[in-house]
Design goal:
Elements (H helix, E strand, L loop, with lengths): L1 H14 L13 H34 L4 H25 L8 H27 L1 H28 L4 H12 L1 H11 L7 H24 L5 H26 L1
Helix pairs in contact: 1-4, 1-5, 1-7, 2-5, 2-8, 2-9, 3-8, 4-5, 4-6, 4-7, 4-8, 5-6, 5-9
Length: 246
């Protein structure tokens, strides 16, 4: 039971990172709008980096066949179908007050956080030191991810408070993943499917929803900022991957 207390404390601390967006709540609308496009660009980079540098390599390490790539493709297709259905269901009679990619991002991030919770709980069950190290690694990974997610939710139509609340709800799925792994250890096998599936979802959101939004800005200065922010997002994920393996 002591293990469970430590696991839940660690996972809850990771979930609280979702509130990092509060740093941006006090900004006035004009300044926030200037930052939003950079944040969306940064989110595109972290999503692509998270999928291609973290999740897919991890999936290949777990399953040395081509199967993880099949699940990644399935993730892309499922997210496409979900967006099509949500758009038709809620927006065919008028303009959407909230872009559908917001809900896709919440779903994908919730799935990703569920996996993080599974990983943290599984490593704590192996050893306390390994669990603590994994918690730190996941935390460093989540900070840029959550900053990008907050920017996506605001850009997609959420208010600042609603973005913080929904981001936290999405983060709390990590607790569910940790509990599932602790009480039903065999569920760790689901990770073989969920990891590449989430990667496919992240690739879809970045490539189909966020990057096309960036193309709506044509000024050279905006394009440079976008490119730099995307590369920073990818580079940070690559650096965190290196740290994690070290």
């Amino acid at each position: 039971m002591n293990d469970l207390v430590v696991i839940l404390a660690s996972v809850m601390s990771i979930s609280l990172i979702a509130f990092i967006g509060v740093l941006f709540v006090g900004l006035n609308e004009k300044i926030l709008k200037r930052l939003l496009m950079a944040m969306v660009s940064f989110a595109s980079g972290t999503l692509l980096g998270g999928a291609l540098i973290h999740l897919l390599p991890e999936a290949v390490e777990m399953d040395h066949t081509i199967t993880p790539f099949h699940y990644a493709i399935l993730g892309v297709v499922v997210f496409f179908a979900m967006e099509k259905f949500l758009y038709w269901r809620h927006c065919h009679e008028g303009e959407c007050p909230v872009h559908m990619f917001v809900y896709l991002n919440l779903f994908g991030d919730g799935l990703h956080n569920f996996i993080d919770g599974m990983i943290i709980a599984a490593t704590y069950l192996i050893s306390l030191d390994l669990g603590f190290a994994t918690t730190l690694a996941v935390g460093f990974h989540e900070i840029p991810q959550e900053i990008g997610d907050f920017g996506v939710l605001i850009y997609g139509g959420f208010s600042k408070r609603k973005a913080l609340a929904y981001n936290f709800v999405s983060a709390v799925t990590a607790i569910l993943g940790a509990l599932a792994t602790y009480f039903l250890a065999y569920l760790q096998t689901i990770e073989n499917l969920l990891v590449p599936f989430a990667a496919g979802g992240f690739i879809y959101i970045a490539a189909a929803d966020l990057i096309p939004e960036l193309h709506k800005r044509f000024r050279v200065r905006d394009s440079v900022v976008q490119l730099v922010a995307i590369m920073l997002g990818i580079g940070l994920m690559a650096y965190l991957r290196t740290m994690l393996h070290a």
